[in-house]
Amino acid sequence: MKIINFDNSEKMRKRIAALYSSVWNEDENVIINRLEKHSTYNGFKAIIAMNDEEQIIGFAYGYNSLKGQYYRELLENTLTSEQVTYWLENCFEFVELAIHPFQRKKGIGRRLVNLLLEDVANKTAILTTQQDNIPAKSLYRTLNWKVIKEPFLPNGAAGKSYVIMGMELDNNI
């Protein structure tokens, strides 16, 4: 396995979208558009895991969480003012982690999380994951993420239930 940086080419976005779609069953165009938009955000960072056959088997990305961003506003609306100040004022938002189903339980997710946060100059990192995604929650807990709020309903009471997790970063550069 090798780790490469995201190059923001159309070909790379399509390859990532194909993996994402196989993991989350989401329309590939949705993730392509999301990547195009998010790659323009301040502090955007993405890394990709590839196998020996040059197939993408995992990816992770995030960016600086800033006022005015859609998801940042959702988080601000659900957290207390103290939590907003502590967790969001100098925050890296860990947006996506996807590992091919046949490549799980091999340490790829752990490696991508650690490498993505390496050299990030923020005080904290924040993420959300589905409340019923036990493998993801377990991975994040072993990497010292802590639950900030559970449940989190970003789409109201009718939507899927999530958990907000945060991590204090000590690699400020």
UniProtKB/TrEMBL annotation:
SUPFAM superfamilies in UniProt: Acyl-CoA N-acyltransferases (Nat) (SSF55729)
A Pfam family recorded for this sequence: Acetyltransf_1
Signal peptide bounds: none
InterPro entries, A to Z: Acyl_CoA_acyltransferase, GNAT_dom
Domain N-acetyltransferase per the UniProt entry, residue ranges: 3-170
GO molecular function: acyltransferase activity, transferring groups other than amino-acyl groups
Protein name: N-acetyltransferase domain-containing protein
Species this chain originates from: Fictibacillus arsenicus
